[in-house]
Amino acid sequence: MLDRLFELTRRGTTAGREVRGGLTTFVAMAYIILLNPIILAGAKDVTGARLSIAQLTTSTALAAAISTLLMAFVGNAPFGLAAGLGLNAVVAYQAAPHMTWPQAMGLVVLEGLVIVLLAVTGLRTLIMNAIPLALKHAISVGIGLFIALIGLVDAGFVAAGAGTPVQLGATGHLVGWPVVMFCFGLLLMILLYARRTPAAILIGIAVTAALSVLVNSVAAVDPRSWGVVAPRVPESLVAAPDFGLVGQFDLFGGFARAGALTATVVLFTLVLSGFFDAMGTIIGVSDEAGLVDREGGVPRLGRILTVDGVAGMVGGSVSASANTVFVESAAGVGEGARTGLASVVTGALLGLTLLFTPLAAVVPAAAAAPALVLVGALMMMQSKNVPWDDVELAIPAFLTIALMPFTYSITNGVGAGVIVYTLIKAARGKVAEIPWLLWAVSLVFLAYFAIDWLERLFG
């Protein structure tokens, strides 16, 4: 029955290899159950409200389990899905400051719906042809720098200076136990990852969190210096999951609260980041699994892309941010995973974590932030794919990368890159090479950057 359902023999695998691969994928990506709540709970919405760590942990695990199981049975692919790093940064730091949390999550649901429509109608080809490949790589690099900066700031390693925009620590020097824990955790993760230790990020978070609990219990540490979560021993390891955020989304309220233009640009950023990140991950991991044919095709690609879009909707509907295919799925593929049976194992294990949500309240920013820095470093590797000797691509790519961390906005980076690329092409007499869709996107971003002027003119 398993062979018929998941095509084990056809793909040259066995049930044992699939179970082993699914377990490996779970261990490699389980850190997101702890990290996603830290990122989202660290931001405030337009009303100053914060989301609950416990509820976010439940929602993150629930959405990941549902999405991964959908991939198993619909896509028959060895992919784990969970809240996407970078996508949750857009929600927390781009959408939430302009609208309430339910309204921001409503945009996430819409993002998933748009990706589903793109997948089933074939419009993804038009979009992929419109955005230059170099800018797609630059977006990944810029998001990497952005989330790395978020990690450095959350840990207190970088802070606003008296005479400079940023400086080392709050006083120009590294002070306090939380910063020490961050430095320890970052070095530990780097060394574990460099040695190719399985679950390096998860081990780094767990060890640093445990050590932070010990330090907090024996040293006189100001609880406020730890940030949102002060590390303490939980009363119990197992607790009933808190589903308080499930269904808390408002589909179109963000357009009324933040304005149609701002909400549309945020939605576009979510779609752009989620769609292209997923495409790259799906093709890359499938190639590593030997599933890509000679023409570059991936089995059931349409279904896989559709599930990825549905996963975004699932994540938004439970306030976990957009779910997407995790590149850590490559770890399971390396252990032999080739089919959706591995995803059944991964999804089931993600579901079990719903019972262990108290552990999330132990992890301070000092323990989770190193993961952001390390993942940022890994995303920087995409910069090698940017042709830096081509001015038409190098300058837009640089602006895309630089403006994301420098303005604390992913949207600003994407917008600047698209506009400058279009204008450089036009200035060099290559108007015919610019797709009409890119002109339309450039106009949207021009309106976004001029929103204050437009409001004064037409308000």
From TrEMBL:
Looking at the Swiss-Prot or TrEMBL record, what is one Pfam family this protein matches?
Answer: Xan_ur_permease
- Transport among keywords: yes
How would you describe this protein's topology in the membrane? Multi-pass membrane protein
InterPro entries in the cross-refs: Azg-like, NCS2
Compartment(s) where it occurs, according to its Swiss-Prot or TrEMBL record: Endomembrane system
Is Plastid set as a keyword in this record?
A: no
Can you tell which superkingdom this protein's organism belongs to? Bacteria
Family under the similarity heading: Belongs to the nucleobase:cation symporter-2 (NCS2) (TC 2.A.40) family. Azg-like subfamily.
Q: What is this protein called?
A: NCS2 family permease
> Can you name the source organism?
Actinomadura luzonensis
